[in-house]
Structure formats: structure tokens, C-alpha cells
Amino acid sequence: MAPRVLVVDDEAAIRDVLRGYLEASAYDVIEAGDAATALDLARRQEPAVVLLDLGLPDRDGLEVMRELSASTDAYVLVVSARAEELDRLVGLRLGADDYITKPFSPREVVARVEAVLRRGRRRPTGDAHPDNAHHEDHLEDERREFEGLVIDRGRHEVLVDGRVVELSALDFELLAALGDAPGRVFSRRQLLERVWGGDFFGDERIVDVHVRTIRAALGDDPASPRFVATVRGVGYKCVARPR
């Protein structure tokens, strides 16, 4: 069954262009021109990905994105004319899995959709599993414990000083990638390949934006980092001390 993509934009011409490119890549496309229709379709049709314009006529797009992130399991990719870094930061903090600015290449949008669909979706905390030693060992393999920080892939959970921290799916994967190799320096390109996929199209500085959102969520001071440090001219590394 083809993955379903919900395109939300108040401009019919943009919806038509995206529909054409997405359907040519074998996606099932549904459309909405306003927030009310988008939220209704997201609930009833269960799309795998939502392409969301922030400039909607009936409701602020950031509020819609927050509601989508909280109420659905869909990836939310913002497609917006708001190109300022602050807008990107706010969007990513509120749960966007990616942020694409207008004007855009339709091929790039399709590539971003393909990239997010290669990731595993969030597994709800507390899912029931068979009680067996193999499963417990697997969960332990997916858990990284540091001084003041726990990254648990099995539960898709991050704790700072025992407090659960909410991260978007993409921010979680980026932090987990750094935590898998503490002390190792990753370039932006290496992180893009690990988290976004090898065929990522766009500005490598998107990594910087996500690192900022991660630091804000963790309460990490970039001038004196506990968890993620910048290596000037190279990239980033996890500096948390393993337990």
C-alpha cells in the first residue's frame, strides 16, 4: 500500500504541483486548504507524512503543527515562506520533523519525504512485550546511560537528571546518533547521512538548528556543555560521561 501524504497549503497551485510530483513517486496524496480540513483528514485518513504550510487562513500553522505532533504518528514537514532562523527554531521545537522554505524544489520535497519515511516511528512508552530474557537484553542494548543523561531507544525516551524530556523524532535520532559514540566528533555531513539519509537535499546548517533545539530541551549550555559540544570547523560530539 502506497504511503499516504497529506498536503496542507491554502494555495491550490502549490498543492497541485506537490501532488503531481508525489503521485509520480507512487505516493497516495490527499489535500487540505485550511487547518480545520487538515486536522480532520489527519485524524480520519492517518497519513504517514504531513506537508504543512504555516500560513493558513483559519488558524496559525504552528498551532496546527503542535496539534498534529501530539495527536498523530505522522511525520510533519513544514513547507513555509517563513525563512528566518527563529521561525525554524520554533517550528522544530514544537515537533516538526523537517523545515523546508519556499520557494522550494518539488524534487527536494519528495526526497525529504522519502528520507523521513526511512526512519522508524516512535514506539509508545509502556508497550506490552513478551517477558523474556532476549527482549530484555535487546532493550538494554538500546539504552545509553551517562552522568545526568539517559537515551533509551527502546522506549524512545530521553531523561535529564531523572526528568523526561520531550524531543521531536528527528531531534531524538540526532541525539541518539551522537550518544552512540561518545567523544567521537561528527561532521554535519556525517550526521546528515546517519539521521536524514545519504540522499539528503538542502543546507547542511539544518544540523545546527536541530542541535540548538536539543540543547534548549536538555538545558545544555553551549558555552559549558554537559552533553553536546561544538567542535569549531568540524561538527559536534557527545561529551556526556558514560556510566
Question: What this model shows, in words?
Answer:
The chain is 40% helix and 20% strand. With 243 residues, it is of the alpha/beta class. It has two domains: 4-117, 3-Layer(aba) Sandwich (Rossmann fold), CATH 3.40.50.2300; 133-238, Arc Repressor Mutant, subunit A (Orthogonal Bundle), CATH 1.10.10. Strand 1, helix 1 (12-24) and strand 2 form a beta-alpha-beta unit. It is elongated, with a radius of gyration of 18 Å. The model is unreliable at 122-140 (pLDDT under 50).
Largest sheet: 5 strands, parallel
CATH-defined architecture of the largest domain: 3-Layer(aba) Sandwich
How far apart the termini lie comes to 44 Å
Shape: elongated
Fraction of residues in β-strands: 15-25%
Calculate the mean pLDDT score and round it.
Answer: 83
What would a concise description of this structure say?
With 243 residues, this protein is an alpha/beta fold. It is 40% helix and 20% strand. It folds into two domains: 4-117, Response regulator (Rossmann fold, 3-Layer(aba) Sandwich), CATH 3.40.50.2300; 133-238, Winged helix-like DNA-binding domain superfamily/Winged helix DNA-binding domain (Arc Repressor Mutant, subunit A, Orthogonal Bundle), CATH 1.10.10.10.
